[in-house]
Amino acid sequence: MRGPSARAFQQGFLKNLILSLQACGSKARVSSSGSASATMSLQERKRAIKSSADIAMATARGGGARWPRAILASPPSSSRPWKASSPGKVRARSRKIVRRCFRTRRSRDGTGGGDSFARTRSVVSSSEIARRLVRKRTKVLRKMIPGGESLDEISLLQEAMDYVAHLHAQVDVLRRISNAVQ
Amino acid sequence: MSSRRSRASVSEEEINELISRLQTLLPSARRRGGSQASTTKLLKETCSYIKSLHREVDDLSDRLSDLMATMDHNSPGAEIIRSLLR
């Protein structure tokens, strides 16, 4: 992403970021009871800035990609929810185990006796294997990109490129703000 | 060439094209000087790059929140941010 489109995105991102931070700040001031100096605790402020940055990035990107919608559909309460968390890993592992059991059970139910190993192999078609290899390749990438779980491989790669380019710009703007303000 | 095969080979080309374009975005692209890396390696590198960008955003956000804590409405820092918007 270069030139005028990058700058337009960065300006849009910055504007959205400032607006949402102001909104967070005024909300906190309204809700905090009494104390004149207290606005937000440091933790709250950190969380607000992080979620504001992601939402600002998604809003500034607009409709040309899929990841902004995924970000806006589930605004993060803590950190990025589309990242793999340990309960997710456990679930994925148990799903794999269930799938393995189901596969052997399927072959056993299919016929009476005979070579169960050969039968297991014939149940899994080659297109199924190809599909599983592709999914294995892109498994981690899907978790890194918001909304990536349901995409086909080509869309996933396009989303990845778009997301990386805009993450770049986000980092750029945040760095420049930090340097300007300190 | 059967229709199914041509469809599959077009997808393969598209994927390779996208992957080489993705490679140019990654930081290692400058070092490598045009040699082809395996798809799996590139995908892994993309994932770790996204992860490091996320971490950088988190660090910068933390830094910003620390700075903003010391900033009040009329300080020069606030004025800088306002001027960035004009």
TrEMBL record, chain A:
GO terms for molecular function: protein dimerization activity. GO terms for biological process: regulation of DNA-templated transcription. It comes from the Eukaryota. Signal peptide: none annotated. Keywords: Transcription, Transcription regulation. Residues 68-90 are annotated as: Disordered. Residues 118-167 form the BHLH domain. PROSITE patterns: BHLH. Pfam families: IBH1_N. Belongs to the bHLH protein family. This is BHLH domain-containing protein. It comes from Dichanthelium oligosanthes.
Automatic annotation (TrEMBL), chain B:
Pfam families: bHLH_ILI. GO terms for cellular component: cytoplasm. Gene3D superfamilies: Helix-loop-helix DNA-binding domain (4.10.280.10). The keyword Metal-binding does not apply. PROSITE patterns: BHLH (PS50888). Keywords: Growth regulation, Transcription, Transcription regulation. Signal peptide: none annotated. InterPro entries: bHLH_dom, HLH_DNA-bd_sf, PRE. It is found in: Cytoplasm. Coiled coil: none annotated. GO terms for molecular function: protein dimerization activity. GO terms for biological process: regulation of cell development; regulation of DNA-templated transcription; regulation of leaf development; regulation of unidimensional cell growth; response to brassinosteroid. It comes from the Eukaryota. Residues 1-53 form the BHLH domain. Belongs to the bHLH protein family. This is BHLH domain-containing protein.
